[in-house]
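Bug report

Summary: structure tokens for Ectoine/hydroxyectoine ABC transporter substrate-binding protein EhuB differ between web form and batch submission.
Environment: batch mode, default settings.
Steps: 1) Submit the sequence below via batch. 2) Compare with the web form result.

Sequence submitted:
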Amino acid sequence: MRLGSRAAMAPPQRTKSTPSERRTSNGISRRSLLAGAAAFGAFGSLAAACSRVPPEGDVEGGDLLERLRSRGSVKVGIASEPPFGYINEDGQPDGEAPAIAKVIFDRLGIDKVTPVPVEFGALIPGLKAQQFDVVSAGMYINPTRCAQVLFSDPDYLMLDSFIVPTGNPHNIQRYEDIADQGLVLATGTAYAEIDYALAAGIPQSRLLILPDQVAGLDAVVQGRAAAFAGTNVTVTGVVENSSRAEATEPFQPYVNGEPAYGAGGFAFRRSEKNFRDAFNVELHKLKDSGELLEIVRPFGFTEAEMTDLTAEELC
């Protein structure tokens, strides 16, 4: 995620657990939008061929939901990033976001969920080019992305964590610890953590950008990086069976003195407000009943990741 500007505001109120947990409303992205723009540039002409897209910045009601009900299926864009979204060994969409999607789309009268896997940076360009109908990848909500797509309210709020060698020899707890010691930090392609690191004073020359958290674990174990930065759930999962690396305690990143909230949701084309609004209705039913936590618990999510933040607050 590259930086997007946002006026400072007081931290939103939450009725669930309050993290000293992670990510920002400062306009910091959880993944860069720039990374995938070129990848999907060739598909731009398809958007005009399939259906009219409103001018950039406009929001319209749209009838996609009715068309998907008639078709009986919905295409969801996912990135290969456990536990948020991935294709399982049966070729089916799996992970936190697809699991939520299956329940909500069924309640909206859409029986089949078809995954369309792409690189994370290509999710928004692919959505706008109509390669799929919804982004179902646990994408962080921030002002830069809100200018391009409509977001559901977030379904989780998460902190950051580091993969470090067993014993944490450099005593790394925050991004500033890495900057102060002049260490190399690894993180994922287009991750928001790139921006958190730069904001903490880690120079670009000491950032090692890797495809994913598995590559990050390898880099730490091999000594090519002092740490790998990612979401708490992602980091905890990847070190689970490692004897040579561990996860640090979760922490809340700050940028320019403000917390960088890592709240993720589903993205819709700006021409499909009706679809987004209907999705939100069902999402809030899951939150109110407690079903949402039960859906995402198998993927490592807990009560601590539940949130009552809204997309409006994050945008």
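Above is the batch result. After comparison, the two runs are identical; trailing whitespace caused the diff. The first strand starts at residue 73 and ends at 78. The two ends are 15 Å apart (CA to CA).
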